[in-house]
Every structure is written in C-alpha cells, then in structure tokens.
Design a protein that fits this description.
By secondary structure, this protein is an alpha/beta fold. It has one domain: L-arginine/glycine Amidinotransferase, Chain A (5-stranded Propeller), CATH 3.75.10. The chain is built from 8 helices and 15 strands. The strands form 5 sheets. Strands 2-1-15 form a 3-stranded mixed β-sheet, with helices on one face.
C-alpha cells in the first residue's frame, strides 16, 4: 500500500486577526497562543508521521494566517487537483500560494494536473468535498462557503459520484467540521449542522449501526474535524464521551492540543490535505524523504 501523503503549512504566520466565522475572536489572540499553535502543529505532524504518513510542508506567508488550513486549497484524487476559490476576500490571497505549491508538486511528479474552477463559482477544497473510500464517492457540502453548482464540477472533474449535503449553521461552515467518514464504513458526524434533507440523504446511504453521532459538546471541540488512517483517528482533544464512542467501534484515538487553531475555526482535518487519495489502485509515487 502507498504511504499516506499529506500537505501541511508552517504556522509561523498564524494568528486570529479577522473574523469570518463565529469561532474567530481576534481579541483573544496572544503571543502565548502563537507559541501553542506552533507546538500543536508540530504535534499533529508527528502524529501523522508516527502513523506512517509522509508530510510535505509549505512555508508561512505573512498576512495569510489561514494558510495553515490547506484542506481548503483543493480537492485531490487520482493525482488530479481541483483548485479552490475562496468566498471571503480575506482568504483569496492563499489561492496563488497554493497554486505555486501544487505546481511544485506537479514538477516533482507527485500530482498530475491542475484544474480550474469555472468562473463565478466558489468551492473551498477538500473541506467541502470529502472522498469516501469505502463507498467510492464524494460527499459534498454547500451553502456557507461552497456553491451548490460546484458539486457538479467535482463530479465531472474526477468522474465520480457526488452526494450534495446542505449545511445550515455558520458555526459548521465546511463539511469537514461536521462530517468524517471512517475506515470500515463508519461515519462520525454532527446531524444538527445539516438540513433535514441532507440528514435524510445521510441516513439513506449509511445505516444506523454505522453512524456515530457527535454531541453538541463533541462537535464544538472540533473533534469531527479529524484525520483517519485505518483504525487511528487523529483529532483535537476530545471529551470522554467521544473517546468511549470511538473505542466501542474499534478506533484508536490520538489527541493533539489544537486549541489555537480552533479559535480560528479549524482543527486536524483542516490543517492537512491528503495528496495520495485514489479511486483505484495505481502505481506508487516516489516521495523524497
């Protein structure tokens, strides 16, 4: 099996200096939180590496604090990269930085081609297009950040089925904040983040025995925003209740202190972008150590 391969960002320029979601409180930011963020990013990277992953890291850019959330940069499957377009002006400067990063990855043979989103549409990457390897489809969020029409673009770009899920809460503005498919067909999710129609779509595709519902407290701890590698689930510090739920289903929980990033509305999944997802077996790529 190929080694899992992730993209992360150096957090040296991370802070909370503007407000584009309800979690963001610039008045609460401090130098101590900046140091805690650097430690948290290192711990997340170490947890991924301990789980057998390779991690690429791009540099920080002053004035682009949310560059630490590369999950929003693109959707990547089978070596193809669908580049994001951000809804909020505060994040649009990230687009050129991530494009350059993907161009570098393409030059190294780690991705194959870059695809532009059609004009007039917004789509915020893997944060709103989550590949479900067990069901071989994309779950796609729309509403607060990504356009409904962009769901069809995801399907056409990758030649895969998509299921559109409308998000209703400005607190859970990307799908990855409230929806996490787990290896083996289970789903960790927060039902209150979705419309009644979206909840019905989830229930129709995933039986009750495979659904793990997060409570308000668990979702607010950004624990659904998790990285899953086989039986391991890497996430922000979790309430005891969620630890018990995951253990009962056979998952090993790896917790990281990501509190400074939660203050910006993101956690483990947001801070990573998986580059090696494939809809079918393919020739392994060579990754520099």
């Amino acid at each position: 099996m190929d080694r899992p391969h992730f993209l992360m960002t150096d957090p040296a320029a991370f802070d909370v200096s503007y407000r584009i979601n309800p979690w963001m409180r610039p008045e609460a930011w401090s130098p101590a939180l900046a140091a805690q963020a650097r430690a948290g990013s290192r711990a997340l990277k170490a947890a991924l590496q301990a789980a057998g992953a390779h991690v690429e890291t791009i540099g920080a850019v002053q004035g682009l604090p949310d560059l630490v959330f590369p999950a929003n940069a693109a959707v990547v499957l089978d070596g193809r990269v669908l580049l994001a377009r951000f809804r909020h002006p505060e994040r649009r400067g990230e687009e050129a930085v991530f494009r350059a990063a993907f161009e570098n990855l393409r030059a190294r043979g780690l991705v194959d081609d870059l695809v532009e989103l059609p004009e007039g549409l917004f789509h915020e990457g893997a944060g709103d297009a989550i590949w479900d390897a067990d069901r071989r489809l994309f779950w796609c969020g729309f509403g607060p950040r990504s356009s409904r029409e962009a769901v069809d673009v995801v399907g056409a770009t990758f030649g895969q089925d998509t299921l559109a899920l409308e998000l209703v809460s400005d607190r859970f503005y990307h799908l990855d904040t409230c929806f996490c498919p787990l290896a083996g067909g289970k789903l960790l999710y927060y039902p209150a983040a979705f419309t009644a129609e979206a909840q019905a779509t989830i229930r129709a595709r995933i039986p009750a025995t495979d659904r793990i519902e997060a409570s308000d407290k668990e979702a607010a701890a950004f624990c659904v925003n998790a990285v899953n590698l086989d039986a391991r689930v890497i996430m922000a510090r979790a309430p005891d209740s969620l630890r018990r739920k995951l253990a009962a289903q056979g998952y090993a929980l790896i917790q990281v202190d990501l509190d400074p990033f939660i203050l910006s509305g993101g956690a483990a999944y947001c801070m990573t972008l998986r580059l090696d997802r494939a809809s079918r077996p393919r020739t392994a790529r060579t990754v520099a150590a």
